[in-house]
Design a protein that fits this description.
8 strands, Aminopeptidase
Length: 190
């Protein structure tokens, strides 16, 4: 389990500096995280617009290994969720990153970069073997994520299934993620 600690940090070189705190989610943050996640994905392509419900379901199931928020002037402006992943060969300590959300008014200010960096650091410090996500390699490659032929995810083109090993050893197998991501939900009107 990832240890709970207060996190702060500056944006990496090349990113705009913003004043905010990166911290662990508290029990009173759930409604704000739901609202910001909904807003962040409202007009996003390639989504069923259910990310806010995924985060709620992960929380309700006790499956949020890491849940960090970016807070600016006591307002939550970003969130990242990480939950356990399974590998069919039985290799332990792999995790799934997502969803990651930043309020539309604060996108492109380095908040997502800070959340990514802080959450991956939490996994490394906890001794995780690696992290996977579904996304664009052109964006997530800067954090070290890339497609890897040893790990697969059913039904997903391999170029969008990205892997970041924290050790020299990458398992071979099919990755499973929490059923909150695959649960059938009624269509939503945006």
């Amino acid at each position: 389990m990832v240890r709970k600690a207060e996190l702060t940090g500056d944006a990496p070189t090349g990113e705009p500096r913003v004043n905010q705190t990166i911290r662990h989610e508290s029990p009173t943050d759930a409604a704000a995280i739901h609202a910001l996640t909904k807003a962040a994905f409202l007009n996003a392509p390639h989504t069923a617009h259910t990310e806010q419900f995924i985060v709620d379901d992960l929380r309700d199931a006790g499956a949020l290994t890491v849940s960090l928020v970016a807070e600016r002037e006591r307002v939550i402006v970003g969130h990242v969720a990480i939950s356990p992943a399974t590998v069919s060969d039985g290799t332990p300590d792999w995790y799934h990153l997502g969803p990651i959300s930043v309020t539309p008014a604060h996108q492109r200010e380095g908040i997502g970069t800070q959340l990514m960096s802080a959450s991956l650091q939490q996994l490394r410090e906890a001794g995780a073997a690696g992290c996977i996500l579904v996304g664009d390699a052109a964006y997530y490659g800067r954090f070290g994520f890339a497609p890897h032929d040893r790990l697969t995810f059913p039904g997903l083109p391999p170029e969008y299934f990205l892997v970041l090993p924290f050790t020299q050893s990458v398992p071979r197998g099919t990755v499973g993620i929490h059923d909150a991501f695959t649960r059938e939900r009624p269509p939503l009107s945006r």
